[in-house]
């Protein structure tokens, strides 16, 4: 059952957290997608391996931190359930990002889901990864029945996530605030080159 203790989502920069204080573990998910999403190419293989290991550690820490159902307490000790979380990916991501997720949990890729189908699938998932096309509404959190602990937005904006509902259901929301930095820079350079070479005018002259 949802808790009404908090009435406003809690924002922390650059990570957006709907239920955790600023000191809690959180993750920037910009690594989940390919270079199109702003992952800077790196020619140093050792650095790539180290970066991948660091990202894996961060996301695993987030999932373990927020998923209280994987922790059971007795009078003498605390035991942890090592069962891997189920991660639903509702929109296409880069293969490199999917490989990282597969190291951390059981990844289910289901694209172009209707709102009804998303609600059906989310009931058995611990985490949800979306881009801009999937609307994570209150109905989705209600269907999650408290099991859904992390919603990762593989991009900048979080307008498609109901932060109020996420707060009430104790679900952490994270995004990738610098995911499109390189793409935006490339687009700006392309526009400058097009203006310098009159590409728009040349294109228009070829059309009837």
TrEMBL record:
One Gene Ontology MF term: NAD binding
Protein's organism: Trifolium pratense
GO cellular component: chloroplast stroma
Pfam families in the record: 2-Hacid_dh
Listed name of the protein: D-3-phosphoglycerate dehydrogenase chloroplastic-like
Domain D-isomer specific 2-hydroxyacid dehydrogenase catalytic: 87-197
InterPro entries the UniProt entry points to: D-isomer_2_OHA_DH_cat_dom
Gene3D superfamilies (alphabetical): NAD(P)-binding Rossmann-like Domain
């Amino acid at each position: 059952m949802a808790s009404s203790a908090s009435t406003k989502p809690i924002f922390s920069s650059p990570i957006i957290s709907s239920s955790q204080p600023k000191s809690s573990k959180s993750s920037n998910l910009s690594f989940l997608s390919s270079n199109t999403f702003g992952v800077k190419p790196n020619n140093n293989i050792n650095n790539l391996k180290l970066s991948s290991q660091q990202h894996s550690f961060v996301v695993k820490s987030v999932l373990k931190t927020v998923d209280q159902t994987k922790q059971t307490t007795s009078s003498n000790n605390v035991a942890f359930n090592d069962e891997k979380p189920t991660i639903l990916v509702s929109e296409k991501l880069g293969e490199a990002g999917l490989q990282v997720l597969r190291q951390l949990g059981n990844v289910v890729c289901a694209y172009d889901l209707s709102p009804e189908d998303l609600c059906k699938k989310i009931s058995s998932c611990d985490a949800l990864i979306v881009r801009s096309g999937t609307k994570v509404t209150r109905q989705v959190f209600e269907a999650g029945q408290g099991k859904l602990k992390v919603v990762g937005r593989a991009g900048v904006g979080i307008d498609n996530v109901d932060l109020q509902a996420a707060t009430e259901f104790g679900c952490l929301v994270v995004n990738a605030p610098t995911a499109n930095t390189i793409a935006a820079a490339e687009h700006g350079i392309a526009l400058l080159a097009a203006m310098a070479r009159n590409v728009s005018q040349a294109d228009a002259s070829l059309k009837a």
